[in-house]
Amino acid sequence: MCGIYGFTGNPTKQTSGIIKKLGELNMSRGRDSTGLALIGHKPNIATIYKNIVEADTFFRDQKLITLLCAYRRQPFITILGHTRFATHGAITSENAHPFKEGDYFFTHNGVLSNFFELERKFNVSYEVDSQIIGYLLNNKKNEYEAFKELRGSFAIPYVDQRELDTLNVAVHDQVFSYAIRDNQVYYSSDIDHLKKALKGHRGFQFVDGRQNIKYSFYSLNGSIAVSKTPIEAKAYEYQRETYNQYDAYRSNRNY
User: Model pTM?
Assistant: First the structure.
């Protein structure tokens, strides 16, 4: 599976280094590509930067280093990070996460077992199963109706460009954890990643995420507040069409 990691809140001089460490730790979950969405609030700006390299190479890119330094000077930012283990779609920069579809920036860890069914149902075509999430978020009545369409597993960090000061994460049958203190939240697929990346940084509370929950992290009176809303998601179901491809793909991997 892929790795997700990121940040929301008031950045400090240490934020770039912590994100770099989280990316490198999540490299164990995906080596096909690495990407970041950098989203600023007041002023509202956003950049997606991704490449088909492993995380340790990605974070040595001088252009990325410059971007991280620029965003670090924003008063409030959100970072969506991803390391990809490809299961649907070629290994290209275009297929790397994060994605921007309509109003939403998002990443995805998991496999959608009804991806082909959803393509047929809505008469759309994508290379990567994760991209159907963007379609649903933009075209269903609300986010909760979008999640009800999905069958399989997912942890989906996403930001609505109409609410740039809110980070949402929908979790179903996948791993997700976060660390929070005052005006900062870091998140990752693995709680041990957070503990390693934040070693020596005081005041963080570490939380293992629950299933079938949409988390919303948002600024409130100078601090980060957290709300938790139940979501409905269909049970994980085996679909031969999907997993024949997935199993064949894994059997040819070098790691």
Answer: 0.92
